[in-house]
Give the backbone structure.
Amino acid sequence: MNIVIFAIICGLLAFIAALAIQMRIMVALVLRRALAAWNGLFVDRVRANEAVVGAASDTFDPAAADGEIVAAVKYLQAEYPLPLAHLKLARRASIFVPLGLLLAVICGRFVFEVV
């Protein structure tokens, strides 16, 4: 019975990790395309990605970026708050869920002895 519970927990954690990575890719892609449609200067993927990362960051410093990036960050934060919240959640999940999976495997090995 322990092996079934262990397999379900590890499967769910692996699925959540894959979903978080997919969400990061898809939401960032959509936001970059929205920026490119809003302003032609953000057709460049690197420049648009800088604005998306700044908009999703809690520690964005407008003094360190140029004026176009700051305007793009403000635009994204004003027009797309829900996708930015999803991006932040996916970032947190893609960091912490693999650690949870590792912890589950360690517990499965040493505590429940199923691995």
Notes: The chain has a mean pLDDT of 94. The chain is about 80% helix and 0% strand. The chain has one domain: 7-110.
